[in-house]
User: Fold this.
Amino acid sequence: MRKTITTSFRHGDAMVTTATTVTVENAVVDFDDILEATEVVPDEHYWETPWDTCDGFDHAFNSSRYGHGEESNARGYVCTRDRAGWIELTSDFGLYKYHRERGASKQVAAEMVACDRRRTLDQLVKWYTDGWQWWGVKCEYLGFEDSVWGIDDDEYAENEVRVEIACEVAHQMQEAGFTVNGVPDRKAEYRSNRIWHIRRNQHGQNWKDN
Assistant:
């Protein structure tokens, strides 16, 4: 809400009147209003490939071999308008050692690695075939703002980052003197983010086929 404040004073034989427009906001706001102003949008300026920025996708693309017949249906084969060939993973990403150190037998650890390699190949084929999308999360509320970009998972952006950005804006408002009701426990949000990143970076804790 805007208000105009007028002030009059005498200056010699003249009366001087000044008018100043000020913005008056409610000092108490709800966190849900900040969250509603926080949106997930496509990031049109981030061009990195997801396998170069995400852990666990080291691979080589071998375009010298082409699939014929049943081979073209095998895992890791890519055939698009501009390329055809095989994706070959270049590492087990330490998963075999990781599972063995935590008590898995050689057979079980090998099965875990094999399952994760299948899942990794499927994701890489999907990226090569269908492309990928980067996302950003931004919030502008009563002159306060925050944003983050280059997110490769829209569900993560919607369910995790969106809340975190809203919390950052709420923190800015609190520092400026606002009262924000209903702000989530940021420590809990941080723990949730850490759990998500740990699961993602280990890339194989849940080794059952999807």
